[in-house]
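Researcher: Here's my situation. A collaborator sent me these components and asked whether they could plausibly form a single complex. I don't have experimental data yet, so a predicted model of the whole assembly would be a useful starting point for our discussion.
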Amino acid sequence: MAALDRVKVLVLGDSGVGKSSLVHLLCHNQVLGNPSWTVGCSVDVRIHDYKEGTPEEKTYYIELWDVGGSVGSATSVKSTRAVFYNSLNGIILVHDLTNKKSSQNLYRWSLEALNRDVAPTGVLVTNGDYDREQFADNQIPLLVIGTKLDQIPETKRNEVLTRTAFLAEDFNAEEINLDCTNPRYLAAGSSNAVKLSRFFDKVIEKRYFFKRWQSRFLASRKERDLEEEH
Amino acid sequence: MRKLFKDYEVRQYVVQVIFSVTFAFSCTMFELIIFEILGVLNSSSRYFHWKLNLCVILLILVFMVPFYIGYFVVSNIRLLHRQKLLFACVLWLTFMYFFWKLGDPFPILSPKHGILSIEQLISRVGVIGVTLMALLSGFGAVNCPYTYMSYFLRNVTDADILALERRLLQTMDMIISKKKRIAVAHRTMFQRGEVHNKPTGFWGMIKSVTTSVAGSENLSLIQQEVDALEELSRQLFLETADLHATKERIEYSKTFQGKYFNFLGYFFSIYCVWKIFMATINIVFDRVGKTDPVTRGIEITVNYLGIQFDVKFWSQHISFILVGIIIVTSIRGLLITLTKFFYAISSSKSSNVIVLLLAQIMGMYFVSSVLLIRMSMPLEYRTIITEVLGELQFNFYHRWFDVIFLVSALSSILFLYLAHKQAPEKHMAL
């Protein structure tokens, strides 16, 4: 096979939310049998067909970098982690649906990753606080994934899902809620699989077809500004 | 409490309550000591409060906490979900059995007392607590100067860090390229396998074996290489984190605060060496001090310098201050160590168990520190502790503490020496 082009996506989230299981599921379509703590960073590769089903179909490698650790770590650990944040093309934010703290920490995770990788045009000036405008201007595609859906009892499900919908809106990102021990959630053709595929397409487009992506991005922003005015 | 649970939710209210109650009662014990010295409150009411406090603490330490620990451990294991209570009781009974057996090899049982008296329980709790205290203080006595003094800091330059980071990224790239090969191979096998994967009887199976044997052998080789590389990347990551931490410490030591702590470090190291020395002497010469340091210090001063002192008046105040300092620093040190430990090993599953374990350790620690503090107090204040705690062999505890302290200090010196030696060698090899 010819050399396929490369794309780098970070997978961020608190300890124990299920990033390693998620990455394994995405790359091998199998459930991870014995999850153990991730020390440092573990990488896995997923082969993705960009624009599947159209004549423009092309295969890309997507590297999923699963970075371990907690957001409250010492500065030395943070600066060590920062070496992995170079030249990233997309971020998947993972949180645990049964643990509210992990969802709140996502803001800090995203700031940590985005502050590191500052593009010359889109400088993120921040003092560590969260600002919604920053994410509106943010040019790196984000995806929010909530795990351990099976551990939430039916009665509480609605409440949890509304909360996560707000979260995803804050990040200006799509969201997927699933259970990493059950490959059914990402079965081909399900809405989750479609969202995932769309996300990866966005990442690839931004990396390689910048003009096309930029025009689409500006169009969607204009649409949103018009909506807000009304 | 909020600080301990900042990043992980401990949902069970019971756990929090137990922890707070243990902590509260332990502190009350120390307050009582201070009241003793100051002479606040009536003597008989003090005695009563002591007894009450002790009873409650022992109740919690020996009965409630182990039971809850057993309960939470069992509820973590999914198999035994049904009969949680039953298994928790079984675990608790095992604990009580071992707890009792603990008393046998030590000379603390005197035939006068009954089975379930306070003295028995305290003696056992005391043994465990004293061991713990000695281990912690031994390690702390050695670790403290090592951390504070910048003499031990290895020199780390930015170039070192950059070189290590570059190696780390190169390793990650190698892992990625190998994984790409595996993924491509899997995909082609999958696509090809779709056509061939209907084993039509015996021959079909043989054919599928011969066609794919070359591919799969290659794959398993690559997989092994990937595993080795991942292990390497983990090591490199840990080393880089270590270097960053050292660099931070070097910068910190250049500030005023850093210099101040450095100075303290020298003091501490002298104090620790003196303590180790005293422990050795105590063991070698088989002697347990009869009078406390304060009175002896004052006596020495009076005798040598010939200053007219009102010994009783000053000894009361000085011992109060000293005891207060000891209490405060030991509580603070314990809580800080517990917090660090908790951050290091907690996960969302076992946080309940860990909190309870910490409560147990803390309770035992405090009870035994009351035992040992008796040593540092002048004669007239010792009486109430002796009264309350019954006829325990206090001398035994002091000796036991010295032995374990010495062992722990020596082994931690050895351990730190090895760790210190290994690290610069690793950097030389780069």
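Model: Some features of this prediction you could bring to your collaborator: The radius of gyration of chain A is 17 Å. Chain A touches chain B through 33 residues (CB under 8 Å).
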